[in-house]
Amino acid sequence: MDKIKLELFFKLVGLGATSGLVIDGDSLFLISDNSSFLYEYHFQSSKLESIRLFENSQANLLKSEKLDFESIVKHNNSLFLFGSGSTEKRMTAVEYNLKNKNINTIDLTPLFTQIKTSTGIDSKNINIEGVVKYKKKWLFFQRGNGTEAQNGVIQFENTFIHPTKIKFIPIDLPQFNNVNATFTDAILVKDKIYFLATAENSNSTYEDGTVLGSWIGILNADTLQLEFYAQISKQHKMEGITLYKNSKAEIDFLLCEDNDTDVLEAAIYKLTIKKTTR
Predict the structure, then answer these.
(1) Are the C-beta atoms of residues 274 and 250 closer than 8 Å to each other?
(2) What is the spatial distance between Cα 184 and Cα 196, in angstroms, rounded to a whole number?
(3) What is the Cα–Cα distance from 177 to 183, expressed in whole angstroms?
(4) Which of 158, 218, 236, 266 is placed for a possible disulfide with 12 were both Cys, Cβ 3.0 to 4.6 Å?
(5) Taking the alpha carbons of 243, 270, 22, 130 in that order, is the dihedral positive or negative?
(6) 146 — phi, psi (to 5°)?
(7) Which helix (H) or strand (E) holds 118?
(8) Are the C-beta atoms of residues 116 and 126 closer than 8 Å to each other?
(9) Could you read off the pLDDT of 106-133 as tens digits, one per residue?
(10) Cα–Cα distances in Å, from 40 out to 14, 98, 180?
(11) Are 103 and 96 in contact (CB under 8 A)?
(12) d(CA 204, CA 175)
């Protein structure tokens, strides 16, 4: 573990339960599964801006009202935010155009209906926690923390409205204290997918459980074969990952943590991996 280092980078006041983050230029964009805002942190000024996505956006929604934004990905000139799909209220995506600041809301109910029909993952088990766009494919990282423990990647082509070639690729991760670690986010770096996974003592996509630790792993983007896996924390529930720096010797990511509380303070961590580790 001396070649993998996790350290607190900074804290942000004004948002909590962070579930995803993306760097674009001087800005760090963040989402929270409790909130219907998009957040933009400006590195140079150290200022945090709240971007209203809906007319009635709120910073701390009741659990039953959450849109549950768990995934954020940059594609072309837009950021896409995705609900987890774990309830009817959580089947919404938002496109935020980085150039003109336009906001477009997308109903993902038809997509989730087709996913459930094509993959056999039912409403009690579907829980999307990460999204990657690779070549012609969209990869939805299904967190297998439901009763059926269906951890893996839902893959489809074309668009969210007219998806084609939908299939589910199960991916088993090592257990910890007889609890399966399951996906919490993923990011594409060239032809590798770096993912986060957390072991949480609960078999519900809705209720939280005791956190037993978090892991970093690598999948081959073409084959989805597991190439690397290591624990990075014994107590944190890491839920978001974005590339920070990439050199010949090491690669740095920024991570965010879902603290499962209503406290509006977010800790941002830096994870450094020496490339000799792999």
Answers:
(1) yes
(2) 5
(3) 17
(4) 266
(5) positive
(6) -90, -175
(7) helix 109-119
(8) yes
(9) 999 999 999 999 999 999 999 999 999 9
(10) 11, 11, 33
(11) yes
(12) 17
Measured from the Cβ of residue 161, the count of other Cβ atoms closer than 10 Å reads 10
> Between β-strands 250-257 and 265-274, what pairing exists: parallel, antiparallel or unpaired?
antiparallel
Q: What is the dihedral of CA 24, 222, 112, 59, to 10 degrees?
A: -20
227 forms beta bridges with none
Based on C-alpha coordinates, what's the Rg of the chain? 17
pTM of this structure: 0.94
- One-character DSSP codes across 25-44: TTEEEEEETT-SEEEEEETT
Residue corresponding to tokens 């997918």: 193
pLDDT the model gives residue 1: 43
Mean pLDDT of 244-248: 96
Residue whose entry in the numeric block shows the structure tokens 């999204």: 131
- Cα(50)–Cα(64) distance, integer angstroms: 22
Q: Which two tokens stand for residue 190?
A: 């060239």
CA pair distance 140, 119, nearest whole angstrom: 12
Is 29 exposed, middle or buried, given 0-12, 13-18 or 19+ CB atoms closer than 10 A? buried
Average pLDDT over residues 222-226: 97
State phi, psi for 53 to the nearest 5 degrees.
Answer: -95, -25
The amino acid present at 273, given as its one-letter code, is I
Residue type present at position 233: S
Question: What are the residues whose beta carbons fall under 8 Å from the beta carbon of 204, sequence distance 6 or more?
Answer: 145, 146, 147
- State yes or no: pLDDT of 138 exceeds 90: yes
